[in-house]
Design a protein that fits this description.
The protein is of the alpha+beta class. The protein has 2 domains: 119 residues, no CATH class; 142 residues, no CATH class. Strands 1, 2, 3, 4, 5, 6 and 7 form a 7-stranded mixed β-sheet that branches. α3 runs antiparallel to α4, α4 packs across α5 and α6 packs across α8. It is elongated.
């Protein structure tokens, strides 16, 4: 039996899709050529204002969403209208973008707040992607003065910090050159390219700080493996079958590599597989061994052996 909530969502989706499809058909028809300004204004109004109004009537007033969620719906509608309405008839749409710009910030804040509270958007893959991106931004922007906790990192002895510094210089030089080159054809495209380069630089910084601030630790009978935001896994010490130097045959399915450039030093074999989580939950894999090259490998091996001795007693 279909509930009233499902009927409301279905009706909203049907009417919204009908408006969008009708707009696409009309803008490709002969009727548009006869009355371009009138039809462009009418469908811009429907796409950007009528659809949010329908959302308010069918979804918000029915208690299925909060009123503040109208903001992201309006932003999405304006973005859709920008793709559907012909570029030479977007005068009304340009005015609406002054409203959409601050609401876009509100939309991002809403998603971030829902993720922080653990509620998310309701779409698993979107929640995971947004959580990962927010984590990268947080580490890249807000972690410069944060003191690294105790534990074992993997980036210091490999010189990853120097590599990141060189990559940032390359990105800065390349971004400047590309901006000057592309702006000869399009100033907007030049700034888009520069924004992409800036995001790439921020991503590198976030990844570096995550490597620094998320070390591997051994606590309360569990080996907490942390490879920045790239991989994480929690391995009970009782599940560790062997700790030995890495041999040449370590490269195979089921072995999680935690090392930057150089070959891993230690192989940790497990009795039973555990699940490793990659980059904020975007992917997972079952592992039965870990090949790791931590900074201060000797100290890590000594501490892990002491912890294993306390668990296994041998």
């Amino acid at each position: 039996m279909v509930s009233s909530a499902q009927r409301g969502r279905a009706l909203f989706a049907l009417v919204s899709m009908t408006i969008a499809v009708a707009a696409v058909i009309v803008f490709r028809s002969a009727a548009y050529a006869r009355h371009p300004e009138l039809l462009a204004w009418a469908f811009t109004f429907d796409l950007t204002l009528t659809i949010p109004l329908l959302y308010t009537l069918f979804i918000v007033r029915g208690g299925r969403a909060r009123a503040i969620t109208i903001a992201p719906v309006f932003v999405v509608c304006v973005a859709a209208a920008a793709r559907i309405v012909p570029a030479d008839q977007q005068h009304f749409l340009h005015e609406l973008r002054w409203i959409a710009a601050p609401l876009d910030v509100v939309s991002v804040w809403l998603v971030a707040r829902r993720l922080a509270r653990g509620s998310g958007t309701g779409v698993a893959i979107i929640d995971r992607v947004m959580a990962s991106e927010i984590a990268i931004l947080r580490y890249g922007l807000c972690s410069w003065r944060t003191k690294a906790p105790d534990g074992y990192t993997v980036h210091k002895e490999s010189g990853w910090g120097a590599v990141v510094g060189c990559l940032l210089l390359v990105i800065a030089a390349e971004s400047l050159g590309m901006h000057v080159l592309v702006q000869h054809w399009s100033v907007r495209a030049a700034w888009i390219v520069t924004a992409i380069d800036a995001y790439g630089a921020l991503w590198l910084l976030g990844d570096y700080h995550a490597l620094r601030l998320r070390p591997t630790t051994i606590e309360e009978g569990v080996l907490h493996l942390r490879y920045g935001l790239r991989w994480s896994a929690d391995v009970p010490l009782a599940n560790i079958a062997a700790l030995e130097p890495v041999r040449s045959e370590w490269k195979r399915d089921g072995v999680l590599k935690i090392a930057m450039f150089d070959e891993p030093k230690l192989r940790i074999a497990l009795h039973a597989p555990v699940r490793a989580i990659g980059f904020g939950g975007l992917w997972t894999r079952e592992i039965d061994a870990i090949a790791i090259r931590p900074d201060h490998a000797e100290a890590f091996e000594a501490e892990l052996r002491r912890a294993l001795l306390g668990v296994h007693g041998t």
